[in-house]
Design goal:
Blueprint: E1 20-24, E2 29-33, H1 35-45, E3 53-58, E4 69-71, E5 87-91, H2 101-105, E6 111-116, E7 119-133, E8 140-151, E9 159-164, E10 180-194, E11 203-207, E12 212-213, E13 216-221, E14 224-239
Parallel strand pairs: 3-4
Antiparallel strand pairs: 1-2, 3-9, 4-5, 5-8, 6-7, 6-9, 7-8, 10-14, 11-12, 11-14, 13-14
């Protein structure tokens, strides 16, 4: 067998199916390992820690809820639009079976991103509205989400990375001249204005013709308000 230093050095771009030589701990057998298999091991084992990021698997099939999983109360979800993700059950431990509930509880009223590992265009950015312990499964919490942006669909039995998403909170809450505009293109009696300003904002509303209109404003949270009218309308609302 030639010495390793005599092998040709690869100069082309590394591919997921290239091979590295290593020793399997089971039986000390020399085997080939691919970059893809190593990346999957890192994702699945949680052997490395990135601050604020945790990995969970979407549990598709009914049965005992697995530690490190996220799922719907009634299971399923494969093929559903991520934009419709409003409530999930999330494990108190991540996929590496490390307990993370104390960290998860700090995410209430903050923005997070769920993204499929290996498919970054499958994602959802959402506000964590509530996180409460599930009555029948104490090792799981009910997480209520308010989706801000999303793309793609749920892939069952697939790993998802979750991390805090600061993109909507770049300004210190409650300071400065903060403002945000909501466009209501579909006529509705209730508009939901997710402004992300971190404060109970002043809301002004205008119809499609630019005439100021008045509805009942409800401050849902420091990042969201609803405006209710007596008839279905389109237009814009401004938060400041």
């Amino acid at each position: 067998m030639p010495r390793i230093q005599t092998y040709i050095t690869k100069t082309a771009k590394l591919t997921a199916q290239d091979k590295w030589i290593g020793t399997d701990s089971a039986g000390n057998v020399t085997k080939n390992f691919t970059p893809q298999s190593i990346a999957e091991f890192i994702n699945e084992s949680d052997i490395t820690t990135i601050a604020g990021q945790n990995t969970f698997v979407w549990q598709q099939s009914a049965g005992p809820r697995a530690l490190g999983s996220i799922s719907y109360e009634g299971w399923g979800g494969d093929g559903d639009n991520l934009a419709d993700l409003s409530s999930i059950l999330i494990s108190t431990s991540n996929y590496g079976e490390n307990i993370v509930i104390d960290y998860l509880l700090t995410l209430v009223d903050k923005y997070i991103i769920f993204v499929e590992t290996g498919a970054s265009n499958n994602f959802v950015v959402a506000e964590v509205v509530a996180l409460t312990q599930n009555v029948t499964n104490p090792l799981f919490y009910d997480m209520t989400l308010n989706v801000i942006e999303a793309n793609g669909t749920i892939n069952g039995d697939t790993l998802y990375a979750m991390a805090i998403y600061p993109g909507f909170q770049l300004t210190t809450p409650g300071t400065g001249d903060l403002d945000n505009t909501h466009s209501q293109s579909v006529a509705a009696t209730t508009w939901t204005h997710t402004h992300g300003l971190g404060k109970f904002a002043t809301i002004q509303t205008f119809d499609a013709a630019g005439v100021q209109i008045y509805g009942r404003v409800t401050q849902v949270s420091v990042n969201q308000a609803t405006i209710t009218f007596g008839e279905a309308l389109t237009g814009k609302s401004y938060a400041n």
